[in-house]
What does this fold into?
Amino acid sequence: MIRRLPLFGLLLAVAILVADQISKLFFLDLMQQNPAGIVVTPFFNLVMVWNSGVSFGLFQEDSDFRSWTLIGVALGVLVWLGLWLWRCQSGLVAAALGLIIGGAIGNVIDRLRFGAVFDFLDFHAFGQHWPAFNLADSAIVVGVVLLLIDGFRPQKTAS
It folds into this structure.
């Protein structure tokens, strides 16, 4: 029997993965035609950034060992998240895990295909410039925020 919450999380992960890969294909093609970037608004640009490190460009040094280590760690975390999803009892947690899993798989696919993650969304405002990111990164951040929200909700006690 397939349980509903894990199935919901899995379907959300697949939807995020597909949307991420389609967006990366579209914007990679667009950015290869416009390598200097595209100004969309005064606070948003489309750019072509290859992140060979992890979040916010950490561990950028280029080596095969680092690439395979990051892929291995991501796959280990994905297994752990999948087990958590299988056991979850909350729709909010299932959604959060689905977002994180889908985003993480999308970025692992980039690392396997290109050796780095393709980032293309570039926001800047009020003198601040955030690191470029992609749809997978957004899904991961939203998923983590949802897990934090769930963690602060009052827990039901068993009677």
